[in-house]
Prior knowledge:
Jelly Rolls; 47% strand; globular
Amino acid sequence: xxxxxxxxxxxxxxxxxxxxxxxxxxxxxxxxxxxxxxxxxxxxxxxxxxxxxxxxxxxxxxxxxxxxxxxxxxxxxxxxxxxxxxxxxxxxxxxxxxxxxxxxxxxxxxxxxxxxxxxxxxxxxxxxxxxxxxxxxxxxxxxxxxxxxxxxxx
Length: 154
């Protein structure tokens, strides 16, 4: 959906090749449980899936959101290049606790970094949905993979 940057100790500006919009990307499907609610999410846990995210889509349907799963806790940054859906992103630590929530504007190239260097998961929901669902900083999530073979042609 946007460039997914991993920010270590030193902020580094680098360019990644953005894949053409007609390439097939594999995402897993999952169920995410948080504050008594269940969200149907796509799971981006490969470099290709994380780099593409929700780019080139006009809707998130039939999913409630996209969960990005990192290998290790770290600082992260998102941008909205080629992403047409207004979103909010929540950053979670390795204990799956929500640390912070940030708004993301469609097609905005401004990098939105995490304040924490302990981010292990990022959850993108349609703009305003964290608040609509009563999800707030300090809440914990659990997720499980439901299907590992979904491919999306974007």
